[in-house]
Amino acid sequence: MSTSSSSPSSAENRSPAITDPLAWRLHVPALASAAAGIERASDAWDAVSDSFCARDGWPIGEEGYADGKVKRDAETWKHVEVFLAHGPEVLAGVRATASGADYVEGPVSEDLRRLRGIDTTLERAGQLRHEWDQIMALMDASLPGSRKIYESRAERIRNADGWRYADELSFQGPALVRAADYLVGRADSDQPSQTERARVALARSAADNRGALPASPSAPPAPTPVVPGRSR
Q1: 10, 59, 142, 195: least buried by Cβ within 10 Å?
Q2: Directed axis angle between helix 147-190 and helix 28-49, to 10°?
C-alpha cells in the first residue's frame, strides 16, 4: 500500500533544507571561498599592473596589461557566479535573523549597513549573466557551429563587464559572510532548529503511543430477563 506524503515516515525523511529556517547557513562557506577568491585575483592583478604602466598611469606594455586584465576578469567572474547562486538566500536569512539593534551597534553593525547596495550588485550581475545565456542560445539556434568561433570573445566581453560587480563584491561579499557567521552562531545557540524540534515532537509522540494501553472493548449490555406471562 502506498504511503501518503503526509505520513510520519515521509516527514522524517524530508530534507532539513526544506524545514530548517537556518538552511541558508549551508551556503555561507561557498560565499566565504568566493569572497576570498575575488580578493586573491584582485591582489594578484594589483601586484603586476603597475609594471605595465608609466608613471602617469597609462599602459606602456599594452599586450601584457590587456592579458592581465583578461585573466583577472575571468577569475573574478567565476566567483561572482557563486554569489549569484548562493548570495540571495544567505542575504535573506541574514536580514530575517538580524534585529534592529544589530544595525545600530554590535559586532556586525557596520557589515549590515554595508549590505545596503548588494541587492543592486547581484541584480545587475544576474542581468549580465541572463544576457550572456540569451546570446549563447541565439548562436546555437541561428548559427549552428558559430559558438565555437565566437564564444571565447563573448566570454571576454562578459567578464570585462562583470568586473565592476566583482569589485563591488570585494567589499560587500566579506561583509555578508561576517554578518552571516555571527548571526548563525547566535541563532544556533539561542534556539534549536525547527527540524530538531520536529524530531523531538515525533519521538515523544511515538513514545506516548507505545506506552498507552489499548482500550478494552466495552461489554455488550446484559439482556433483560423475560418474565413468563400467565397463560389464559
Answers
A1: 142
A2: 130
